[in-house]
Amino acid sequence: MKIVRINMSKGTVDEHDVPKEYQGLGGRALTSTIVGREVPGRCEPLGPRNKLILSPGLLSGTSAPCSGRLSAGGKSPLTGTIKESNAGGTAAQHLAKLGIAAIVVEGQPSNGALQILHLSASGAKLVAADELKGKGNYETVAVLLDKYGQKCSIISIGQAGEMRLSAASIAVTDPENRPTRHCGRGGLGAVMGSKGLKAVVIDAEGGKRLELADSKAFGEAARVFAAELKKHGVTGTTLPMYGTNALTNVINEAGALPTRNFTSGHFEGANKTGGETQREIIIERDGLPQHACHPGCVIECSRIYHTNKKEYLTKGPEYETVWAHGANCGIDDLDAIAQMDRLEDDFGVDTIETGATLAVAMEAGLAKFGDAEAAIRMVREIGEGTALGRVLGCGAAVTGKVFGVTRVPVVKGQSMPAYDPRAIQGMGVTYATSTMGADHTIGYSVAPNILKVGGDLDPLKTEGQVEASRNLQIATGMLDSAGLCLFVAFAVLDSPAAFGAIKDMLNAQYGWELSDDDVLAIGGKTLAKERAFNKAAGFTSADDRLPEFCYTEKLPPHNKVFEVSDAELDELFVPVEEKYQE
Amino acid sequence: MKIVRINMSKGTVDEHDVPKEYQGLGGRALTSTIVGREVPGRCEPLGPRNKLILSPGLLSGTSAPCSGRLSAGGKSPLTGTIKESNAGGTAAQHLAKLGIAAIVVEGQPSNGALQILHLSASGAKLVAADELKGKGNYETVAVLLDKYGQKCSIISIGQAGEMRLSAASIAVTDPENRPTRHCGRGGLGAVMGSKGLKAVVIDAEGGKRLELADSKAFGEAARVFAAELKKHGVTGTTLPMYGTNALTNVINEAGALPTRNFTSGHFEGANKTGGETQREIIIERDGLPQHACHPGCVIECSRIYHTNKKEYLTKGPEYETVWAHGANCGIDDLDAIAQMDRLEDDFGVDTIETGATLAVAMEAGLAKFGDAEAAIRMVREIGEGTALGRVLGCGAAVTGKVFGVTRVPVVKGQSMPAYDPRAIQGMGVTYATSTMGADHTIGYSVAPNILKVGGDLDPLKTEGQVEASRNLQIATGMLDSAGLCLFVAFAVLDSPAAFGAIKDMLNAQYGWELSDDDVLAIGGKTLAKERAFNKAAGFTSADDRLPEFCYTEKLPPHNKVFEVSDAELDELFVPVEEKYQE
User: How high is the ipTM of this complex?
Assistant: First the structure.
C-alpha cells in the first residue's frame, strides 16, 4: 500500500510506500494519526500548515459487507479540533483497489489556482481545473465523468468549499455517479478548498484486487458478518424498509426531537416528514425506496427521491437532514426538505450544520419558523456567496454570534444533531466529550437509550451514560478505522458473532492475530491521539460541556435539563487515556 | 461606599453597602473580582448569567490628577475571556461623588425592553427608554441631557450595543457632553445591550465631596504627582503638544506601524496622518489642539477635531484609531479617518477592532486598500445592521472566518493594535499573554522598547521582554484599579517620586498603610484573579500565542518574525500566580 502526497504550494505529487509509523492503520485511525503527527495543533485550519487526509478503511476494497467508507481528516475550521468525517459512495473501494492507503494534501497555492488530482493505475497527477471554478458538485461531477470516464469515482467540493466556508463538506459519488454522499461535518470541504483542490478523480480500471492473507477465512467471516447484519432487526428490517428516517417518529415519540431550535422535544408535524411517509412518496413517484450507497452494502438504507414530476431530485434525505430542516425549523414539508438537501449537496455544505443554522437564523428573526420558502431562499444565498450566505455557510455558532442569538446548539462550535441531549442524556454525554464537537455518530448513545440495542439505559437518567458513551466511542473509533458503516454497530453491539467476524476479517486480510482487546484498541488508541491533538490545540475539560441553555431551560414534554455532572463528563476519557496513550 | 445592583430580569434596583469581600477595591480590581466571584467562567457572554460591572477607580472623585477613569467589566463576547476596559470622561468622578463603588447589572429582560438607569443623590431607578431604540450615542446623549439636565454624565450604547455586536463599545460623555470617550475593547457594549440597558444617567448634584482620611497629606501627594507628570517629557511635553497621535511617525520610523493588514511595518503616508499634521489641521480649523477628557487631567492629550467648514466633527482621533483606519487600511486621509471615528463613536463600536476589521475585509477583496470611500461605506453598514455590517461589527476574527481570510491579526479573538509584534517583540509578549486578548494598554512594552521609558530594551530582540511585560502588566493592573489614566505610567516608570505619590494618595484617602509592594499587589492580585477566570472559561497556555502569520511571515523593513519562544511566554505568569493567587 502507498501514500500519495500532493503539495499544493509546489504543485508536486509524491507516491511512496506507507512508512512504518503509519502501517497497519486505515480510515480514521490513519487520518487522525497523520494529523496528530504532522499538523501543528495551533495552526490556522485554512492555512498551508493544515493537511487534508483522505483514507479508505482497513477493510475497504474487500468483499467485507458495508466496508466502503472513506475517511477525511484534518484540523477543522469549524471547531478548531481534530476532525474525521466519513462517507459512503464508491471512492474508498476504488482507492483501495489502486493500493492507496491515504492521500495527503499539503500546502497551499499562492495564486488561487484550482486543480484536480487524477489517480489511476498509471499514477497520480495534478491537472489545472480553472474551468470548474464556481461550479456545484453536480456539474463538477458531470464534467469530470464526461472527461475521464463514467466508471471513475469523484471526490469533490462545491461553491462552499471554494469559498472556504466552515460548514463546507466533501462530496463522494454514489454508484449512480451522483455527489450525494458527504463527509459532512466539521468543514473539511473548506480545507480542501483552501488547498485549491476542486476534486479527486479515481480511475480504478487496471487496479488490482486486494490480496488477502487468508482468503478462505476472510470469505467465511464475511458471510457470517452479512448473515448477522441481515438477522438484526435494525439492520435487517427497519433500515432497509424506512431508511434512517425511520427515526423521526421514534425520536419524536421519545420527546427528544429538537423542534424550533431546541425549544421542544416534540414536533406536531413529525409524521408528515417521517420515514413511513417518505417511503410512500418515493414509491408513488417511482423513486427507489431501497438502495445501497456503495457496492457491497447489505443494509441498503439509502434511497432515491423524485420530484412530483417523477424526476430525480436528490437521495432520500437522511433522518438528521430531515430533522435539521424539518422539526428544527418547524417545517413539515418533505419536498421542501428534499429541495434543500439537493441544494446543499450541490453547494457542498453539511446538511446538519446548515439546518441547525437556519433555525438559529429563524430565532434571530430572519424568517419565521415553518417558512419553507424563506429557508430555501437562505440556503440559495449560501451558494451565491452573499454576505448573509457566507455567514450561514459558516454554521450555527458564527450565525448566532453575528445575529446576537445566545441559544445556539453547538459544542466546540459544531451543531448538535437530531437528538436533544436533555431527553436522551446519553447523547449529551457524547456531544459534550466528543473529540470533534457535537456529533452523534462518534458514540451513538441512542442505541442503548432509545433503541435498546447494546444495553438498556433510561434516557432521562444519568446512570451508566458515561460508561456507555465511552464504550461506544471506543467501538466507533474501530469501525471508522475499518471503513465499516456505523450501522453495523447495531448488530455488533447485540451479537458477539458479528464482532468476532470483524476481528476474523481483519486477521484474515492482514495475517494478523488480533484479540478482541486488540480490535477495540484500534478505536481506543485513535481516541487518545485525537485527545492529544485537541490538547495541543488548546482544548480543556471546560470545552467538554453542552451549551448553557441545555442546563438552564427545561425541554418539553419531559421538562428535563441535562443532568450529567461536569465531574462525570471529565471521567469519560480517564481510562481511555490511561490504557491507550502511546 | 455602596454598590448599586440592578436586575434586568426582574426590573429591580438594590443599593447596599460594599460587602466585605469587595471592600478596598476599585476600578479594574473591583470589576475583575466581582466577575471572578459572580460570573460562571463558561457562561454565555450575552446571556443572563453574565454581568456588566461599572466602577470608578480608587482615586476617582478626588483631586488626584488624571484619576477619572471608569472601568467596565464582564465576560467578553469578543474573546470569551474576562474583560476590563476603561475610559475617561466625567462619569467615574460623578459616580464617586454619589458614593457608588460599582454598578452591577445582572439578568436579562425577557421582552426585549430598553431601559435607562438614573442615578442621583436621591437614589437609583430604572426608567423605560423605548424611545431611544436604534439611536446612536450622539442623539441618545442629547435626548437624555435635555431631559435630565446638562450637568449629568451619560454612559451609553449606540446601535452596535443594541444589536449585541461583539465589537460594541460603551460610550462615556466628555466635559463637553459628547460621547467621545469609550470603553472600547472586548464588546462590553454588547453585554450592556444584552441587558436591555441603553444608558446610565448620573446626576451628581447634591453628591458629597469624598471624605479623605488625611486631606492634608493627600493634597501634598497630589501636588507632587502633578509636578512629576508635568516634568516628564512624554506627559509634560509630547502628549499635550501632539496627543497620542505623536506616535504615528515614531512607530513608523521604528518600522513597526502595521500597514495594509500587517504586511509591512512602514507606511508611506504616515506623516500625512501623524500628530504633527493633525495639530496643524486642528489649529487651522479652530478646533482644540489640547484638551482634557476629564476634569483634573494635567496631561491634556485629548483634542477636538473640526471639519474643513470649522464645525465640530469628533474628538481628535487617537493614535490607535488613526493607525487602524489609516496605515492599516492604506488610507492617508485624516478627514476620512475622523469621519469614521465619528461614525464609530456614534454607533458605539471599538475603533481599533473596527479598523482592524476593515483591513481584513480589504484583504478579502471587499474593497481596495486605500479606498477611504469604501471604508466609510462599510462602517456605515455596521450602524445600519445589514448582514455585512453585522459581520464587520463582530470584529476581525468573525470577518476573517466569514470571508475566508487566514491572516487575521487577533489574539483570543481580539485585534492586535497599532504596534507590530514582529518589530516590537515586547508588545508581542503582552498581546500573547494578556488576560483579555491582544491589548496594548495592559502592558505597554512600547515604553521600554521604543520610547526608552522605564528601561531600554532592543525591540527586535527577545532578551528581557517577558520580565518587562510582566512588570508592566502588574503596574498597569494597579493603575487601572486606582482609576488613573495609563499615561501617568510614563512618569511612574521613570520616577520613584511619582510612584510614591500614588501610594501616598491611596494611604491618605483611605487611612491605609500600604507599602510599595502592597501597591503593586493591587495589580498582581487582579491579574491572578483574571487568569483564574480564564482558566475556568477554558483558556490554556495554547491560547497565549500570536496568530500564525507572526511566526511565519517576515515583516518589512526589519524582516523579522516574532521570536519569543512558547516556553518563555508560559513563564510570564508563573511568579505572578505564585505570589498573588489568593
Answer: 0.95
